[in-house]
Amino acid sequence: MMSKKILVLAGDFVEDYELMVPFQCLLMLGHKVDVICPDKKAGEQIKTAIHDFEGDQTYTEKPGHNFTLNATFDEIDENDYDALVVPGGRAPEYIRLNQRVLEIVKNFNSKNKPIASICHGIQVLAAANIVEGRTCSCYPACAPDVNLNGGTWKDIGFEEAIVDANLVTAAAWPAHPQWLAKFNELLK
């Protein structure tokens, strides 16, 4: 498989595993992966959060690692990329307010380029209005974001992923093996 150029949309308190694991796995597969954050430049850091499932009504949240960005938000041209990754965590709830973030997502979708979204990342896709008519998964608390935007949320558990056209979605980081494998298939 030829190396692809992949863009990752992140922000402070992105879920640690949902940024770190895909970033490292995609690099390991030989892809070029650029991680950007609104209002930040290459070399600056974002904080991550670790979400864990410990028997409570929802996930718990703990401080994660710092992640050093390797691209500058204001300098990228999404047309130079083959695919997009939108990790979850807390970042999607506020980066979706950035109009440029929404333009980037819409551009990838309009060109039918692969988009991988996990957990709360669906909030960005819903805000970009690209889930209408699509079947998607995400963290169950985000299911209304899918359904209210004309999509269909499918409960596939926490270890599976679903593909609908150019979108591959999953509920949370336990789905990484399935989510990344299905995304890698879309990259071919």
UniProtKB/TrEMBL annotation:
Domain DJ-1/PfpI: 4-183
GO biological process: proteolysis
GO MF, any single term: peptidase activity
Classification via Gene3D superfamilies: 3.40.50.880
InterPro entries: C56_PfpI-like, Class_I_gatase-like, DJ-1/PfpI
This protein's record includes keyword Lyase: no
PROSITE patterns named among the record's database cross-references: PEPTIDASE_C56_PFPI
Tree of life domain: Bacteria
UniProt KW Hydrolase keyword: yes
One Pfam family matching this protein: DJ-1_PfpI
Keyword annotations from UniProtKB, A to Z: Hydrolase, Protease
Entry-linked NCBIfam families: PfpI
PANTHER family according to UniProt: DJ-1 PROTEIN, DJ-1_THIJ_PFPI FAMILY PROTEIN
Sequence similarity: Belongs to the peptidase C56 family.
Name the UniProt record assigns to this protein: Protease
Organism of origin: Malaciobacter marinus
